[in-house]
Amino acid sequence: MAQYRLQQLAEHVSGRLCGNPEATVDSIAALDKAQPNQLSFISNAKFRERLQQSVAGCLLVSETDVEFCHADSNLIVVNDPYIAYALIAQLMDATPKAASGIAKSAVLSPSVILGDNVSIGANAVIEDGVVLGDNVVIGAGCFVGKNSKIGSGTQLWANATVYHEVEIGQDCLIQAAAVIGADGFGYANDKGKWIKIPQRGQVIIGNRVEIGACTCIDRGALDATIIEDNVIIDNLCQIAHNVHIGTGTAVAGGVIMAGSLTVGKYCLIGGASVINGHMEICDGVTVTGMSMVMRPITEPGVYSSGIPLQTNKEWRKTAALTMNISEINRRLKALEREHGKA
User: What are the pLDDT digits (tens) for 328-338?
Assistant: First the structure.
């Protein structure tokens, strides 16, 4: 296991080192579990009481946390300990690549264009006209369809599927079993008979995008489904055809977005939310978890829906009132009319 000098780590996060610059750590651990060979951090003031008891080899802290630390602790003082933790976690990351080299069982069309240092795992299939940039990694069992383009530094984990004519930018991470470019849900109904509408659009994904395991992003009907730069999408999400997600937006697990929805830049979409299609959400919107968004959102802010957890007895009363809300409203209006006459 690699050893990291505290001076090296302090320089990596542009922090101020208080302690022994030659001391080393080899990994990161939670504040209450970290050992002398490990680094930890605090990003919430409610955990300050643990600082005095910590035996971590180094602590990432803000200036306001220093006074709560043990006098003998090695500290790296930074503006934002959580950001510093993320940067150091990247430095120490030992996650293996999805593939190394080109496996003998991989099937590549003769027309595939490979950049430098491309890796393709066992039983992967790369079809005609595909372009893979430098340092692309395609995991075992992946499929990349005709004329798709994958930018340099992008990695697909095992069994990810990229349909035809999809464009994926640089330094993206596609987790296992994600499906990019499947048909959108487009049909016409002729007297009860469903007539499939071929989905001729693309999926275009920008740079530094992460797409979670088993997430599906459908291709557009005519125009493209677009995911802009620096978007992160969690596991098990459904992004329907012709959705457009703006730069820097984060989408938590289990979210469903209906077709032709536009989501602005730097939005936060809470887990298990359902968002209607053919409308727009402006920049800077936060939708809390399990919300149902049925109308456009035109002003930045935090939006919520749904009923918080109650005991079953309380919920049954709430449900009964909800079922009778029309009658309650009718009686209220009648009382208002009587009061007005009085």
Answer: 999 999 999 98
Q: Give pLDDT, residue 341.
A: 56
Give me the residue label for tokens 């959705």.
243
* Tokens found for residue 281: 């959400």
Long-range contacts, 85-93 (Cβ 8 Å, 24+): 85/28, 85/41, 85/43, 85/60, 87/12, 87/13, 88/4, 88/9, 88/12, 88/13, 88/28, 88/39, 88/60, 89/28, 91/4, 91/9, 91/12, 92/2, 92/4, 92/26, 92/27, 92/28
Sign of torsion over alpha carbons 274, 280, 282, 283: positive
Q: Which of 12, 164, 241, 278 is catalytic?
A: 241
Has 241 been annotated as catalytic?
Answer: yes
Across 253-258, average pLDDT: 98
